[in-house]
Design goal:
By secondary structure, this protein is of the alpha/beta class. The chain folds into 2 domains: 5-128 and 214-225, Rossmann fold, CATH 3.40.50; 139-210, 2-Layer Sandwich (Alpha-Beta Plaits), CATH 3.30.70.260. It has 6 helices and 14 strands. Ribose-5-phosphate binds at residues 32-37, 89-92, 102-108, 111.
Length: 247
Amino acid sequence: MSAQPEQLAREKQLAADAALRWVRDGMVLGLGSGSTAACFIVALGKAVREQGLRVQGTATSRASEKLALEAGIPLLEPRRGLRFDLTVDGADELDAHLRLVKGGGGALLREKVLATASDYLLIVADSSKAVAQLGRFPLPLEVVPFALPWVLDAVAALGGAPVLRMSKEAPAEPVKSDQENLLVDCHFEVIAEPEQLVAQLQNIPGIVEQGLFLGLARAAVVAKGESVQVLRPGRPAAAAGSFGELP
Ligand SMILES: O=C[C@H](O)[C@H](O)[C@H](O)COP(=O)(O)O
């Protein structure tokens, strides 16, 4: 039976709180997007305000930037040479190799930029995100508006049943990313060969970024019920309390 929304909310909080163990004084952090990353930003802000933790960060979305400012976390603008000791971010799906599907909240481009500029990407997730095989969650793409018709044709030819993401508040309007691009959700159902799919998507002009994150995550903190596990690519899960190597 799948977990109830209240249980998943509790698991997000547990994973986010556990992720604080990766943070060290003086770190430069990438701040992820979505509801689980939001729990982390709030918890981090509390540590900054109440325990004098000194960190700086850059956010992967306007929403996370606003949240971080409200939480009292000093923010850094993008600049040449800026790297992150640690980025903490959520995921829509993760497998045993810590291959990820991201972008359910539309922040995949900035998320991939920061993940790539980070020495350590830590994923925080509730139990619903850990899957045996990627693909049930529709794969998000960020697409330049002019290229949309051809991108839809090309993704359909790959078997991805593309759907333009529409606004929930204004159903006639497409969702725009922070870069004013469109978002397309591709229903593959099963992504058997993620590396091959990435290569195919990278060949389609007009796709600014796609939501498969391969070889980027170093660890994932996944909460299930009241227990928290740490997953590392291809290695057995470690229980909370034996967090193993830190960044
Ligand atoms: O674009 C959004 C991000 O990739 C999120 O990290 C992802 O959608 C997971 O979000 P949530 O923690 O709300 O499930």
